[in-house]
């Protein structure tokens, strides 16, 4: 938020007298205003010989604050927004779609958690290729461990499209153009890229982005966690809220992956655990049986599928991801 | 002399006071699992529990109870007919679920009425949904902006909707804890207030207190908590798969440590008048498909606890 000085040009009421008055009470920025008692400030302004003008200044800053505020929406407006702007995107795998009642919802932050080789990346790659193919939507694909495989995307697209279709090649090109891959190796770069994305989406330069994938977010976040300071957790929460903001305000389906680490007693647990849990809308657990190579998906958390599918787990072999019948 | 006598005269008797308070600020019973204690406006109720423990669902059910009319076209709905303000700090509120639950509730109340006319169903739904006001914010400064500007909004609501806002909901109060803890305390000048968790929460409590003076409301706030150690012993797998080796990880094992770690600054803790704890329980043999939850009143501390499940309709059912 802005220092008061920078507001002077736009709002003549916030002049140097007003700024001096504020500075004498320790207010230099709009943020400082927010943590001050405005009624008390108005009472203090009353004692000043320039009280009328100072109070106008306070009202001016208050209206600046008010304008920044998002509007309150009533239930109907909310429902309208969801029905018109937040669609469900198919993942390209029929079983997963059926399991999740259609797929991944725009506006939601979905987390895939599971041990290595449980199929997290495969689900991401398939969802990316399907969104690019079926909806011609742009997919931002952020990878932290070189897990992106364009070959695999080609395979997925080939299987999804009709072999008799002679435009297969142009479809493929279209799909490949839609998926934009970034390699990111630390959380600061991630925050940087997310801010850039937020900016470009706000200025309508990139209105076709439908999906954002981060594979894997845990390998970016877990190195900064630990220690006695709060900064690691703060970075994690900042990234989480930024993702939720991007998802909601720009109608993106956001998918992140979280790997597993050994916890106490040899039991594996998600790398991002207790304090991350509150961030995603949907948490899906992927796990694989090593003998049969069958992966299964189960719901750890979901805003509306809480119990309708209480004891249903979807079983997918990696082949199923390959061949979506 | 006359004025002194006037001053000495009692303003009202205890009976008059009681009648006045009971009509102006009536006792209110919220739907289960908050049904054990009566509340009145001005109370601040905190629902604390790990994630997921149906905290948001409890808030949603209380909200639905508030926005439903008491009676509509001769059908009894048993609601309060007042508006609700929902401040979403977690940014995870799902309006589809909300409208689904509201519809179920309406259908449920109309089930025993003959001659279901469908046209007034839609009208009633619209009326109810209009009473639900929602805002989300992504950091605590946005939250402070909302609180500072809420007075005008409440005033407007009072004029447009009969009775005005009755419930203020905050989901969840500790959402920005980590972000605020890392705020830079920029104490460049000696009298400048430093921006910190303490300061943010103090301002927040002060603003809510001021709102409550002018607009009598009941405040319901959820707070996510981690129980026991840092391990995810409280994680509930809703649909444990069968047979696979990795699936054997049992989040529910381990002794339940009942004490939750309080992390909000004391200014918030002392602001809370009622506190209820919700947690998933191991006891689920009878209702295998549905996770069972336990509730316990911590403030005031009641000796018994309730069990509830979430049934297939997504409703809370007390066992």
From TrEMBL, chain A:
<comment type="function">
    <text>Involved in the homologous recombination repair (HRR) pathway of double-stranded DNA breaks arising during DNA replication or induced by DNA-damaging agents.</text>
</comment>
<feature type="domain" description="RecA family profile 1">
    <location>
        <begin position="85"/>
        <end position="260"/>
    </location>
</feature>
<dbReference type="Pfam" id="PF08423">
    <property type="entry name" value="Rad51"/>
</dbReference>
<dbReference type="GO" id="GO:0000400">
    <property type="term" value="F:four-way junction DNA binding"/>
</dbReference>
<protein>
    <submittedName>
        <fullName>DNA repair RAD51 homolog 4 isoform X2</fullName>
    </submittedName>
</protein>
<dbReference type="GO" id="GO:0042148">
    <property type="term" value="P:DNA strand invasion"/>
</dbReference>
<keyword id="KW-0547">Nucleotide-binding</keyword>
<keyword id="KW-0234">DNA repair</keyword>
<dbReference type="InterPro" id="IPR020588">
    <property type="entry name" value="RecA_ATP-bd"/>
</dbReference>
<dbReference type="GO" id="GO:0000724">
    <property type="term" value="P:double-strand break repair via homologous recombination"/>
</dbReference>
<dbReference type="InterPro" id="IPR051988">
    <property type="entry name" value="HRR_RAD51_Paralog"/>
</dbReference>
<dbReference type="GO" id="GO:0005657">
    <property type="term" value="C:replication fork"/>
</dbReference>
<comment type="similarity">
    <text>Belongs to the RecA family. RAD51 subfamily.</text>
</comment>
<keyword id="KW-0233">DNA recombination</keyword>
<dbReference type="GO" id="GO:0005524">
    <property type="term" value="F:ATP binding"/>
</dbReference>
<dbReference type="InterPro" id="IPR047323">
    <property type="entry name" value="Rad51D_C"/>
</dbReference>
<dbReference type="GO" id="GO:0033063">
    <property type="term" value="C:Rad51B-Rad51C-Rad51D-XRCC2 complex"/>
</dbReference>
<dbReference type="GO" id="GO:0005815">
    <property type="term" value="C:microtubule organizing center"/>
</dbReference>
<keyword id="KW-0067">ATP-binding</keyword>
<keyword id="KW-0227">DNA damage</keyword>
<keyword id="KW-0539">Nucleus</keyword>
<dbReference type="InterPro" id="IPR013632">
    <property type="entry name" value="Rad51_C"/>
</dbReference>
Automatic annotation (TrEMBL), chain B:
<dbReference type="GO" id="GO:0140664">
    <property type="term" value="F:ATP-dependent DNA damage sensor activity"/>
</dbReference>
<dbReference type="GO" id="GO:0003677">
    <property type="term" value="F:DNA binding"/>
</dbReference>
<protein>
    <submittedName>
        <fullName>DNA repair XRCC2 homolog isoform X1</fullName>
    </submittedName>
</protein>
<dbReference type="InterPro" id="IPR027417">
    <property type="entry name" value="P-loop_NTPase"/>
</dbReference>
<feature type="domain" description="RecA family profile 1">
    <location>
        <begin position="18"/>
        <end position="232"/>
    </location>
</feature>
<dbReference type="InterPro" id="IPR020588">
    <property type="entry name" value="RecA_ATP-bd"/>
</dbReference>
<dbReference type="GO" id="GO:0005524">
    <property type="term" value="F:ATP binding"/>
</dbReference>
<dbReference type="GO" id="GO:0033063">
    <property type="term" value="C:Rad51B-Rad51C-Rad51D-XRCC2 complex"/>
</dbReference>
<dbReference type="GO" id="GO:0005657">
    <property type="term" value="C:replication fork"/>
</dbReference>
<dbReference type="InterPro" id="IPR030547">
    <property type="entry name" value="XRCC2"/>
</dbReference>
<dbReference type="GO" id="GO:0000724">
    <property type="term" value="P:double-strand break repair via homologous recombination"/>
</dbReference>
């Amino acid at each position: 938020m802005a220092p008061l000085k920078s507001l002077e040009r736009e709002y003549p009421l916030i002049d140097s007298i007003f700024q001096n008055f504020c500075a004498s009470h320790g207010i230099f920025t709009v943020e400082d205003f927010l943590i001050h008692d405005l009624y008390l400030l108005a009472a203090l302004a009353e004692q000043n010989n320039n009280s009328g003008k100072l109070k106008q200044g306070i009202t001016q800053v208050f209206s600046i604050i008010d304008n920044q505020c998002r509007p309150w929406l009533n239930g109907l407006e909310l429902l309208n927004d969801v029905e018109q702007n937040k669609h469900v995107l198919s993942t390209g795998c029929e079983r997963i779609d059926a399991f999740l009642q259609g797929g991944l919802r725009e506006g939601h932050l979905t987390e895939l958690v599971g041990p290595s080789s449980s199929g997290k990346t495969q689900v991401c790659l398939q969802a990316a290729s399907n969104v690019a193919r079926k909806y011609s939507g742009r997919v931002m694909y952020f990878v932290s461990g070189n897990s992106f495989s364009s070959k695999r995307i080609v395979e997925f697209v080939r299987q999804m499209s009709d072999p008799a279709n002679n435009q297969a090649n142009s479809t493929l090109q279209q799909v490949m153009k839609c998926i934009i891959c970034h390699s990111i190796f630390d959380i600061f770069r991630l925050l940087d890229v997310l801010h850039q994305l937020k900016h470009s989406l706000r200025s309508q330069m990139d209105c076709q982005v439908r999906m954002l994938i981060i594979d894997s977010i845990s390998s970016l976040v877990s190195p900064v966690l630990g220690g006695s300071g709060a900064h690691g957790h703060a970075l994690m929460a900042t990234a989480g809220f930024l993702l939720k903001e991007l998802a909601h305000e720009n109608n993106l389906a956001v998918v992140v992956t979280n790997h597993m680490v050994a916890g106490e007693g040899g039991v594996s647990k998600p790398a991002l655990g207790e304090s991350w849990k509150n961030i995603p809308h949907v948490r899906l657990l992927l796990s694989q049986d090593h003998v049969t190579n069958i992966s299964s998906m189960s719901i750890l958390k979901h805003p509306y599928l809480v119990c309708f599918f209480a004891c249903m787990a979807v079983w997918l072999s990696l082949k199923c991801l390959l061949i979506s019948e | 002399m006359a004025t002194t006598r006037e001053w000495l005269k009692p303003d009202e008797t205890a009976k008059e006071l009681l009648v006045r308070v009971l009509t102006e600020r009536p006792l209110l019973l919220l739907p289960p699992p908050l049904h054990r204690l009566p509340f009145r406006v001005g109370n601040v109720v905190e629902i604390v529990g790990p994630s997921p423990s149906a905290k948001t669902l409890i808030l949603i059910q209380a909200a639905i109870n508030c926005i439903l009319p008491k009676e509509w076209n001769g059908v009894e709905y048993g609601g309060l007919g007042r508006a609700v303000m929902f401040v979403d700090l977690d940014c995870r509120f799902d309006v589809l679920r909300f409208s689904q639950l509201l519809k179920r509730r309406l259908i449920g109340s109309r089930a025993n009425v003959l001659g279901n006319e469908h046209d007034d169903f839609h009208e009633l739904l619209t009326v109810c949904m209009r009473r639900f006001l929602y805002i989300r914010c992504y950091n605590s400064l946005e939250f402070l902006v909302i609180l500072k500007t809420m007075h005008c909004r409440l005033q407007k609501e009072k004029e447009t909707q009969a009775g005005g806002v009755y419930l203020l909901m905050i989901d969840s109060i500790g959402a920005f804890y980590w972000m605020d803890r890392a705020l830079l305390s920029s104490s460049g000048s000696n009298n400048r207030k430093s921006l910190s968790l303490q300061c943010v929460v103090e301002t927040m409590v002060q603003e809510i207190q001021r709102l409550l003076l002018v607009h009598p409301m009941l405040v319901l706030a959820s707070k996510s908590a981690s129980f026991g150690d840092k391990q995810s012993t409280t994680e509930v797998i809703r649909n444990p798969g069968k047979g696979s080796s990795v699936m054997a990880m049992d989040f529910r094992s381990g002794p339940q440590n009942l004490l939750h770690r309080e992390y909000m600054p004391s200014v918030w803790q002392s602001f809370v008048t009622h506190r209820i704890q919700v947690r998933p329980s191991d006891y689920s043999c009878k209702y295998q498909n549905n996770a069972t939850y336990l509730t316990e009143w911590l403030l005031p501390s009641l000796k018994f606890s309730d069990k509830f499940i979430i049934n297939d309709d997504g409703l809370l059912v007390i066992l």
